[in-house]
Amino acid sequence: VPPYDCRMCHTPATDAAVEPFGLTPCAMCGAALVPSVLLATIEPPPNLPSVGAGRLIEARVCRAKKNAKGDVNATIVSEALPFLEFDLHRQLTHRLRIAGMNAAFG
User: Fold this and answer.
1) Does the pTM exceed 0.85?
2) With contact defined as beta carbons under 8 Å apart, do 103 and 41 qualify?
3) How far apart are the first and last CA of the chain?
């Protein structure tokens, strides 16, 4: 068993599905495919190898909301959420690339 465990970064994709997603072979084991950017909501596992020091990357999105009450307000918010998530994802990946990083944890 190697001293590192890179399996959590591997994707279940096959070679036929690689092209549209930009997956590459794992640099640690070479046995599986990994994404070019990894976004995770967990803390990094202690045995996952990393290069360089971690740092804080922040992303913020702000949108104006119409004044509404009750169900109309809920509808406005729920319709805006997918666009807010997309903007946050885009900001995070852009800031990671600027910082020369390819993963975000936490």
Assistant:
1) no
2) no
3) 27
